[in-house]
Write a structure and sequence with these properties.
By secondary structure, the protein is α/β, with parallel strands linked by helices. The protein is built from eleven helices and 16 strands. It is globular. The structure holds flavin-adenine dinucleotide.
């Protein structure tokens, strides 16, 4: 049987592609290598209302397990800044199942236990319980969270694949922490290249992750768990993974092929979903118009760039700048962060320059000492 759109991976991005493309009239097949949503679910389990709003989605009570008032950012010198911006922890299998229902109700077919081995512009080869199979389609969307499948056919979806962050994350109980906030710890000693996080899930449970770049997270993870708040804690589950946070999207389409979500360097649950919606809309339009050429599919990339590229640029600028800062400088930044509404500022300005400037001005208003720091950063 020939499908219009075949999606690889029931990721947040892949589920949105499947839902949107089916809703717009395409015959959609979604292939997922896992047996069910419960098995080996992704460790990504938190987001902010601000992210969902920014990308045009509404978080749903059906999958939220715990709500927080905002985030608490802790500098290497121990200074904490509380940023009031509501967020939530999700039950990931419930989250995936919730959006899968959207896709199925719109007419998409989902096949579990179907591992994609190879794709080209005409068909896809999978391994299923009863052996290898081939499915034919008009458009293949790679939403597999990593870029392996699409790299194999020579498409480089990430500009800086060497900048992948590596993480270890544990589910823990008896964590003694303020459950009204997510907690982020930064600094070279804690997590070089990014952050350590504690995401409360209620009843003293939390997911605890250490994300680093350019090194192995193991030593930093072990050291982080020596902190006092974990004295009585037990690990109930542990996972490892890679986060595309600042790899930056590169080539996202080719003839009959599209990439989306983590596979395309579009990191994060909410941003992946937003990209999935755009991707699904264009895939359906291409099929209906009988034009699945790279030229037509580039409409997806153009729309995505207009809406979100600057957010990724700002993220990359932020993390690479942070990496060069001393602990004392980071401490100054954290002090200045207090009460900046980051999502409001991002939403207000679609232009990177304006976003950075407005954030910069807000930070300076809160701490004039930053002028010296900014001079140092811009000349170094
Ligand atoms: C430890 C860790 C914690 C994170 N926490 C958060 C967080 O709290 N919030 C957040 O926004 N981001 C978080 N991230 C980042 C986030 O996971 C990614 O940026 C993003 O979710 C990637 O998602 P995706 O939707 O593209 O794919 P994923 O969610 O990775 O899903 C990919 C899917 O494709 C399937 N698949 C893969 N290969 C094949 C194949 N060959 N055939 C068939 N199916 C296949 C997989 O089984 C999986 O279901 C975290 C990352 C890590 C590593």
């Amino acid at each position: 049987m020939k499908y219009d759109v075949i999606v690889v991976g029931a990721s947040p991005a892949g589920l949105m592609v499947s839902w949107k493309a089916a809703e717009r009239g395409a015959r959609v097949l979604l292939l997922e290598q896992r047996n069910s949503f419960e098995s080996a679910s992704s460790p990504a389990d938190t987001s902010f209302d601000g992210f969902f709003k920014l990308v045009g989605l509404k978080p749903r009570a059906e999958y939220i397990v715990h709500r927080v008032k905002g985030m608490n950012v802790v500098s290497p010198l121990g200074t904490a800044a509380t940023i009031e911006t509501p967020g939530f922890s999700i039950d990931r299998p419930m989250f995936d199942a919730y959006y899968a229902r959207w896709a199925i109700n719109a007419g998409a077919e989902i096949k579990f236990n179907s591992k994609v081995l190879f794709v080209n512009s005409k068909s896809i080869i999978v391994r299923e319980a009863d052996g290898q199979k081939r499915y034919d389609g008009e458009i293949f969307v790679i939403a597999s969270g990593n870029s392996e499948i699409i790299n194999r056919i020579g498409i480089k979806t990430m500009k800086h694949p060497g900048d992948l962050a590596y993480a270890i994350q544990a589910e823990m109980d008896n964590v003694e922490i303020d459950e009204d906030y997510f907690h982020y710890f930064i600094g070279k000693e804690v997590a070089p290249g990014w952050k350590a996080t504690i995401s409360p899930k209620g009843d003293s449970k939390a997911s605890v992750g250490v994300f680093v770049r350019g090194t192995n997270p193991k030593t930093f993870f072990d050291k982080f768990l020596e902190r006092e708040m974990f004295n009585q804690s037990k690990i109930t589950k542990i996972v490892k993974g890679a986060d595309q946070i600042i790899t930056m999207p590169n080539d996202l389409v080719s003839n009959n092929l599209m990439a989306v979500g983590g596979a395309a360097g579009q990191a994060g649950i909410a941003y992946g979903m937003a990209a999935g919606i755009l991707c699904g809309e264009i895939a359906a339009e291409a099929v209906i118009k009988g034009n699945c050429s790279k030229r037509f599919l580039l409409r997806y990339v153009k729309r995505w760039k207009r809406l979100f590229l600057n957010h990724y640029r700002a993220g990359r600028l932020g993390l690479t700048t942070m990496e060069r800062m001393s602990d004392a400088d980071l401490d100054v930044i954290v002090r200045a962060l207090k009460s900046v509404d980051i999502f409001h500022e991002l939403a207000r300005h679609s232009n990177i320059l304006l976003s950075s400037l407005s954030l910069g001005i807000l930070l300076l208003q809160r701490n004039p000492k930053l002028i010296g720091l900014m001079k140092y950063l811009s000349f170094s």
